[in-house]
Amino acid sequence: MTDSDPTTYDVAVVGGGPAGLTAALYTTRLGLDTVVVNRGGGRAAMMQETHNVIGITEDVSGAEFLQTAQEQVQAYGADYRRGFVSDIDEADDGFRLTVDDGHALSARRVVLATGFSDERPDPPLPPTGRGLHYCLHCDAYMFVDEPVYVMGHGDSAAYVAMIMLNFTDEVDLLLRGDDPSWSDETDRMLRAHPIDVIDAEITGMNRGPDGWLESFEFEDGTTREYRGGFPMYGSDYNNDLAAGLGCDRNDDGTVVVDDHGRTSVDGVYAVGDLVPGHNQIPVAMGQGAKAGIAIHMDLRAFPRSVEEIEEQGPVDPAEVPAMSESLRETARAFREQAAESAADD
């Protein structure tokens, strides 16, 4: 295949996290030829344990969670490619995607699920998931009655520190040598909460036999014990493709969408951490599902409207079903396999 000979799909999903894979799950099961292009990595892939996903036990890592999701999507007939989409251009029949290996894909609709990257503080730092955590809503439960730190010097860091008092009475706010940049109102609130604000920079770290953080050492010679904490230095949204397509963005870098993930560019959807809202797996999955259903309703061949009937005539029996033969074949094989498994049970 060459760049002038793209593989054609109904839907191309860029990003293989919970939001993108859920969108692909829905579009594929609803009869649309779908490809997922995933460069790998992402926030979900870094999780040591999966929290707040009903039906998924906490011993499941993010990598295991995503691998199962990938296998599910492929089992329904979607294509899954590891690669980086470097460019997306509008074309007469939809969109043309250029992948980093020089190959091109064509799709009638595009779903952007490229997420964001957390800004990491300077070392020394504990391992992610073993004392360094980026999601309060996911991980605060782990630190009930444990000593906790919050790193940062802005309003978000101060607020997270105050929020953590709902879970523990030992909360330190670590400035790491930076001057506070939070507002006067936040400063007044912070001073009214029992939080120690530590100015000194971290010079060393100690970990226990299990790899978890035990304490930080500071340049003033003190050592303070912590079970874990949250760095609050902002997010870097992976919105280059959205910007290249002309999608409207908010001041923080998120992509503007409606309730079904539609962006300001017709045919382009955005879901997951790339859009405003809570950065949670169940939320991302819901967004992916809603986008997948919206795309199905937009692209499905039937019912043919009155206007279309007047233009094209009644539906010929030879035109149905509207699914591609490859998806129909996969669906038949899937049903047969399920029946065999049920018989074995």
Automatic annotation (TrEMBL):
Pfam families: Pyr_redox_2. Residues 9-288 form the FAD/NAD(P)-binding domain. The keyword rRNA processing does not apply. GO terms for molecular function: oxidoreductase activity. InterPro entries: FAD/NAD-bd_sf, FAD/NAD-binding_dom, Ferredoxin-NADP_redctase_2. Keywords: Flavoprotein, Oxidoreductase. This is NAD(P)/FAD-dependent oxidoreductase.
